[in-house]
C-alpha cells in the first residue's frame, strides 16, 4: 500500500469514528429526560431478566422431557411434572415480556413528549434571525422524526439489544456447562462475526440513509412552501413548474431509497449466511455426539432449541442496529435544534419592568442585520410617557428595524435602547414584551376562529372582554353578520378576511392586551384610502395615554404626532412637528408635496 493510500484509509477511518461518536453523543443528552423514571427502568429490566431466564429454561426442560420419554426409563409422574414446568416457563416468558412493556412504554412516551416540548420552547426562544433563515417544512419533519426516534431508540435498546446480549450470555453458559468448548467457540465466533458484519455494512448504509433524509426534508420543504404560496402559484400559472420542482426532489429521494433497499438485501443475505454456517456446524457436532452415544437425543433437541432461541433474536439484531442508528441520526438533527444558540437571551440579573407609565429612549444606536451592512447609524431620540413619535422615510431607511429592536428581537451593536432609564438588555424579555403591543403592516392570523385570534392578545381574557375589544376596534358588527359569529374560521394566515378586517382584528388584539407601549408599523399602508381613514381614528383612540411609536409611509396618518422623525439611510435627517417640518421646506415637505400630488392624480 502506498503512502497516499494509507493516508486515505486513515482519513476514512477518522471520519467513520467521528461520525460514530457524533451519532452516539445524543444518548447522554437523552438521559436527563429518563432520570425521573429510573425506577420504572429498573423494574422493566428486572422483568426482562425474568423473561430471558424463563426463555432459556424452556429448552433445558424440553431436553429432560425428551430423555425422560425414552422407553427404557419412562416414568409417568416425571414427564408430567416436567410438562407442567414447560408450560409454566412458556407462560412466564410471555407474561414477563408483557409486564416489561407495560412498565416501560410510559417512559418512552413521556421522554418523547418532554423532548418535543423542550425543542418547541427552544425554537420560540431563538432569535428572529434564525426563524427568517429556517425552512419550516424540513424543520417540522426533523422534529417529527426526532421524537419518533426517541421511542425507537429506547424500545430497541431495551427490547432488542439488551435481550440479545443477555440471552447470548445465558446460552453460552448452558453450552459451556453441558457441552465441550467447541460448541462455545463456534457460537462465540458466529456472534462476533455477525455483529462485526452488521456494524460494518450498517455504517456504510448510514450515509445513504442520511442523504435520503435530507432529500426527504427538502421535498417536504418545497411542498409546504408551494402550498403556503398557493395564490402566487395561481397568479403566475406555475402549477406544473411547482410540480416539476417537487418531482425533482422526489426523484432524487427515490434513487437514494432504491440504493438503501439494495444495501439492505446485501446485509440480510450476509447475516443469514453466517447464521446458517454456524447452525450447521453445531448440529454436525451434536449429531456426532449422539451417534457416539456421548450425547442423548435430548441434548440434540437442547442445542437445536438454544440455537433457535439465540439466532432468531440475533437475526433481528441487524434490523435493531439499523433502526437505532437511524433513530440516532434523527435525534441528532432534532437535538441540533436545541444546540442552536440563543442570539438574544436574558441576563443572569435581568429584572422585571417596573409598573406605571414608561418612556422609551434610543441613544446613539448602531445596528446591522449583517456586520458587513449597517442599517442604523447613531440613532438617538426619545418617546416621553403617553407621547406619540412618528418615524417616516423611504423603504429601507430602517423604520421597521426600530420596532424589532424595541421588542428586542435583536440586540443593538452600539448604543442603547432603554425604557424608563433601564437598558432593555437588563430587563426580562417576557416582562418587556408584555408591555408592548403592535399593529403590523401585514397582519398574519392563526388558522383558527376570530375569537381565538382576538383573545390571543391576552389568552386569559373572558369572552365579554374580547367582545368589548372588538367593539372598540369597530369589528363587532361585522363579526355578528357572519354565520358562525366569533367562531368563524379565518383560514390559513387569515386569508378569508379582507385587509381591513384583518387590521381590525389586529387592533382588537392589541386593545385586549392593554399595553403601555404601542407600535403601529405601517398599519394602514396596505389599505385603500377609505379603509385607511376608517381605521385611522381607531388607531388614534387606542394610542391615547400610551407611549406610542408610529412607523408610517403615508404622512397624512402622522400629522398629530408629538414629534416626527425623518429617516434616510439609517440616519435622522429632520425632526419636529408636522407644521414645523413643512415650514422648513426639507425632505419631509418634499415627501408631503409628492404624496399630495399622487392623491390628486
Notes on the structure:
The chain is an alpha/beta fold and 601 residues long. The protein folds into three domains: 23-338, ABC transporter type 1, transmembrane domain (ABC transporter transmembrane region fold, Up-down Bundle), CATH 1.20.1560.10; 360-435 and 515-600, Rossmann fold (3-Layer(aba) Sandwich), CATH 3.40.50; 445-510, no CATH class. Helix content is 66%, strand content 9%. It has helices at 3-24, 26-35, 38-68, 77-125, 128-133, 136-178, 181-228, 230-235, 239-291, 297-315, 317-338, 399-406, 429-434, 450-455, 463-472, 476-481, 499-513, 529-543, 578-584, 587-600, and strands at residues 360-367, 376-383, 388-393, 414-419, 422-423, 436-439, 517-521, 547-552, 563-568, 571-576. The chain has a six-stranded mixed sheet with strand order 6-7-8-3-9-10, sandwiched between helices. Strands 2-1-4-5 form a four-stranded antiparallel sheet, with helices on one face. A hairpin with a 2-residue loop joins β4 and β5 (422-423). α19 crosses α20 (587-600). The longest helix is centred in the middle third of the chain and has 53 residues, at 239-291. Mean pLDDT is 80; it is low at 1-21.
CA-based gyration radius: 35 Å
**Roughly what fraction of the amino acids lie in strands?**
5-15%
Highest CATH level, the class of the largest domain: Mainly Alpha
- Counting DSSP H or I runs of 4 or more residues, the number of helices is 20
CATH architecture of the largest domain: Up-down Bundle
Low-confidence stretches: 1-21
By CATH's scheme, which homologous superfamily of the largest domain applies?
A: ABC transporter type 1, transmembrane domain
Shape: elongated
Number of DSSP E strands? 10
Average pLDDT rating: 80
Q: What would you call the structural class?
A: alpha/beta
CATH topology of the largest domain: ABC transporter transmembrane region fold
Q: How widely separated are the two ends?
A: 83 Å
- For the largest beta sheet, what order do the strands appear in spatially? 6-7-8-3-9-10
Counted up, domains total: 3
What string, H for helix and E for strand, traces the elements in order? HHHHHHHHHHHEEEHEEHEHHHHEHEEEHH
